[in-house]
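#onboarding

Welcome to the new folks! Below is a worked example of what a typical request in this channel looks like: someone posts a single protein sequence, and someone else replies with the predicted structure as tokens. Don't worry about understanding the tokens yet, we'll cover that in week two.

Example request:
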Amino acid sequence: MFANQNQESAELALKRFGWTPTSSTSSLLIEGVGRLGFQVGRAWSPKGEYASIAQPGGIFVLLAVEGGAWIEYGGEPVPVSASEFIFLDGDTPIRISLRQPTARYIWRFDATVLRNPLVEQRMGQPLPLSSGDWGTAAALTNSLLSADTKVGGSFHAAKASEHLLSALFENATRSHSSSAPGTDQVFSHALSIIEERFQNPSFRVADLAKQMLVSERTLRRSFALMGTTVRKEIEKRRVQELGLYLQTPTLITSKLFKRYAEASGFSSATHARAALERLDAQR
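Example response:
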């Protein structure tokens, strides 16, 4: 599937896509075709770390076929699993971490069709694709890679790829719109999920965002409008639950306090005491 390549040629191909390695590329396999303004291709590596090269006005697209990636996008961690794709703003600093063998298709555009408000709103949010849908994107990309470079690297090939990704985006957002709340519903929907999951000590902002199919940035903005944060609301709910336990007339020993703290969603008694102190300081 991939042509033999040395580390230098792999890094050069990676640079054409707008990425620079921050770890070894000795096991990276990458192929691409394009010209100034766009690149389409595929890549595989057992692991790796990459940082974006600023692409003013450009868009990166990544489709994970096998494995997955952790993407730091604008300072926020975003997990991308197999059969998910994600649109990334070329103006935003991005770091990608691959912690398992990952096969992916990758694109870079000085975008026109993809530069629209709907795509802008979903930047940095993974979108699930059916095998039939991502198979269409893979088939076109594979065809362009095997074609004469005058065809694969043509303006028309770029537009075909961009229009196909636009269609896949519209289908993915349409298919999942019923489970994704509108902007005015984000806060109330988030509170209902917090109510269901606050007793899980590992429940975090990223988990809430993924369940709601919104970005952490959207969550933060929604909670900020209400004068609070997601973390504060999760902690507040845990403190409320702990308060109910502490109302018991039973003598509260250290062992019993630890049990109550963990039942309320705190990872330890120390974290519970710190949360109680923060609450007292706010009163």
